[in-house]
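Sample entry (82 residues):
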Amino acid sequence: MFRAEIKVMLKKGVLDPQGGAVERSLHALEYDNVSQVRVGKYMELTLDAADREAAKQQVREMCERLLANPVIEDYTFDLVEV
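Predicted structure, serialized as tokens:
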């Protein structure tokens, strides 16, 4: 059994309006030293796989097919044996 910890972020150069809104709000709260805010997604899932390589392949497929939009998003993940 493995727990996949997946992080999905917009690619550099892709406009992030949510990140911009958060940055403006932080500045309004007088956190003026904050810049370049990017907002993404974090997901955890548990999967039963034969071994680490099989788990990696399955998580990659899930990210490419559903969890991330590879046109505008990048993803990374870590696997933890549970």
